[in-house]
Design goal:
The protein is mainly α. The chain contains 11 helices and no strands.
Length: about 200
């Protein structure tokens, strides 16, 4: 479960590249506790990498669940393929008869649980990773904020400049797919030194 949940949180807070690195490092750390079990290492890396690759919309928690489910299906396929390469065959019937002992079911179930865990604890993990919540950003854009009101009163030129920069920066961020709300907040408060 952590092989997919942690990279999903990191990919949401930062980017996919960082999520890839975290998934590979996490897979090596966990497999080192079990004497570098090659099958475990391969499946954990596959699950973390698949989860970060499949996560397309980082802003919606429901997409975390979908990425977890699809990563579980992907890692089940990788498990079967690696087992065939290492052991020479994969007995589908034997694996499917014992539902609680099924490695394929564990892979898919682990992906489902990882997606659910990633979605449920998304907010708290974003705070741990230093991500500012959307609600807080919306509060900071409120023109009734004391610092913004003080800036408008004491430095009207800087306030007008900050508002123009906020509009320009938000448009540019939207055009390239960056976080437009975070950019707007940064532009509002970039000249706060003028209000001492």
């Amino acid at each position: 479960i952590p092989a997919a949940a942690v990279p999903l949180w990191v990919s949401t807070a930062f980017d996919r590249r960082t999520g890839f690195v975290v998934s590979v490092v996490l897979a090596f750390i966990v497999s080192s506790f079990l004497r570098f079990d090659l099958l475990l290492l391969m499946t954990m890396m596959a699950q973390g990498l698949a989860a970060t690759l499949i996560l397309l919309d980082r802003k919606r928690p429901a997409h975390l669940v979908g990425a977890g489910v699809l990563s579980g299906v992907s890692v089940a396929a990788v498990l079967a393929a690696v087992t065939v390469v290492i052991e020479g065959n994969f007995d589908w019937v034997e694996d499917g008869t014992g539902l609680l002992d099924s490695r394929l079911f564990a892979c898919v179930g682990g992906g489902v649980v990882a997606g659910l865990v990633a979605a449920v604890f998304r907010g708290s993990m974003m705070r741990v990773l230093g991500h500012v919540s959307r609600e807080r950003l919306l509060d900071l854009t409120d023109l009734e904020q004391p610092l913004l009101k003080k800036m408008a009163r004491e430095a009207p030129g800087s306030w007008e400049h900050s508002r123009s920069m906020a509009n320009l920066a938000e448009g540019a961020a939207s055009a390239i797919g960056a976080d437009a709300l975070l950019t707007r907040v940064g532009a509002y408060y970039q000249d706060r030194k003028s209000v001492g």
